[in-house]
Design goal:
Blueprint: H1 13-38, H2 43-72, H3 85-115, E1 122-123, E2 129-130, H4 138-173
Antiparallel strand pairs: 1-2
The protein binds protoporphyrin IX containing FE (HEM) (2 copies).
Length: 186
């Protein structure tokens, strides 16, 4: 990943669209995942929500792959010079961890569903299916399920921290980190 900062003050339009689309979808997936597992009892509704979760997950996977590729060739805007060196390092570390966790949750979800002994494929629009990654394997599926759950909860905590950090920049430090991810001039 290119880490050298450039003098730009804002993320480009492409960077912002990718960030906010992925952020919205991932928040939706966290909420939907919790809701369908913990709150829905009706089997038919549960089934529909699981299918929606899987299909949306496939779309998030594609979008995150595009985003990660784009990011490999694009430098981030420079962080404010007022930001202490250790905070800059923590910020970059947390962002890298967010990418890692998102891909971890996605891959675990994909393996879990692929290895399931109940053959319910990931549906795509137009009647297509995502091919299974591995052959049915009960133990693998159950382990991937546990990993999917655990990583999703770590991701939830880190997203909470990330949002608090963005607010801290705006309200406490009063620098331009939050604005750099918002549309505007300059
Ligand atoms: C960023 C993407 C994703 C996020 C944030 C996410 C999040 C979650 C969460 C929070 C839960 C509920 C865990 C619980 O309450 O214990 C869950 C469950 C589930 N997820 Fe995902 N998920 C994602 C992607 C995927 C993908 C790609 C698949 C498969 C293609 C998938 C399949 C499932 C299934 C089948 C369950 C239900 C598990 C059960 O019955 O206990 N998820 N997910
Ligand atoms: C209200 C919600 C959110 C706000 C205010 C917000 C704000 C920001 C800001 C200001 C940055 C740029 C930081 C910088 O330039 O150093 C950023 C980067 C980032 N955000 Fe968010 N964010 C939010 C939600 C999310 C969510 C839900 C995710 C996904 C789990 C996410 C993932 C990321 C990642 C991975 C980066 C690093 C971008 C990169 O270096 O490629 N954000 N966010």
């Amino acid at each position: 990943m290119i880490t050298a900062a450039t003098p730009r003050r804002r993320w480009s339009g492409v960077g912002q669209v990718l960030h906010w689309t992925c952020a919205g979808l991932i928040l939706f997936m966290l909420g939907l995942g919790l809701y369908m597992v913990e709150w829905v009892d009706d089997p038919a509704q549960k089934f529909d929500l699981y299918q929606l979760h899987k299909t949306t997950g496939a779309f998030v996977f594609l979008l995150m792959a595009i985003r990660a590729l784009w990011r490999l060739f694009t430098a981030a805007p420079a962080l404010p010079q007022t930001m202490p060196r250790h905070e800059q390092l923590i910020s970059k570390g947390v962002h890298l961890l967010l990418y890692g966790l998102i891909f971890g949750v996605l891959i675990a979800g994909y393996v879990y569903v692929s290895a399931s002994t109940l053959p319910l494929p990931i549906e795509l629009p137009g009647g297509y299916h995502v091919p299974n990654l591995v052959a049915p394997d009960y133990e693998l599926s159950e382990s991937a399920k546990v990993v999917h759950h655990r990583l999703a909860f770590v991701l939830m905590a880190l997203v909470g921290l990330h949002i608090l950090a963005a607010l801290k920049h705006r309200l406490w430090d009063r620098d331009e980190v939050l604005q750099s991810m918002l549309p505007g001039r300059g």
